[in-house]
Amino acid sequence: MDVATLTSSFTNTAMNIGLSIGPKILLALMVFVVGKILSARIAKGIETGLNKAPASDASVSQFFASLVRYFILFATLIITLSILGINMGSLGGMVAGLGIAMAFILADSLSDLSAGVMLMLFRPFRVGDEVEIGGTSGVVTDIQLTAVRMKTRGNVELIVQNSKAWGGAIRNHSVLGNRRLSMAFGISYDANIDEAFAAILAVVSADSRVHKDPAPWIKVINLGGSSVDLELRIWCDYDDLRALKTDLSQPVKQALDAAGIGIPYPHVVKIRQKIKNSKARARITKLAKLNAKT
Questions:
Q1: Which residues have CB under 8 Å from 166's CB, separation 6+?
Q2: pTM across the whole model
């Protein structure tokens, strides 16, 4: 058999295989591409529809949209393999065995997935809440199947595994809305305590962000070495907590100054004394040198 005959035979065989398998491959590729596009669009439509529903929750919408997307992708993969003529019975056994192996390999990911389901069911926090989870704090921007995405006040993105979020303590600063703010002030022993109370309460009562109920609370909490220590407790919305603390400090100081109430501060008094005893002077000099070395 010459080379031309071999070439012709090979070409005919390749063409026959191409004509028999080519349409299947092309159809399978088209089904996979269409399924991938549909999964993204359907998931987006479900998320949009759930967000428009009354009492909707963005985190739940995102979670169910992700579930639908992965389900459609899995179904698309099964259909694609069927079009290619792959025996699904034998493939099922292989998938089962592979699934067991992957369960051991991806144990952490499965743990994150199950924790994600628990987060969706019990919803200890939602998208937009400011929380502390897994030792980190920030505003929740997305709750995914395996991780929670957050953004810090410094505009840094944090990604926390769902297993760490669900397995540890969760502090949600936003869910209750109201927060108590405590501020400490010190006044001199010569000052009139009642006048100090009145000056401070006048400042906080004039701020609309301070809640009237519960009413502002102020008491003497300690008699310090150089000051009478006061503690102010007020309630406000959580969103106003940080700004209110800084915004009240200056007007309170000005109100106390206007009322003639002094705020003591520590003084450092240096005493210089001539030491006549030579041994004592030598001992002090030695200690000073040791302190300088350390």
A1: 115, 118, 119
A2: 0.53
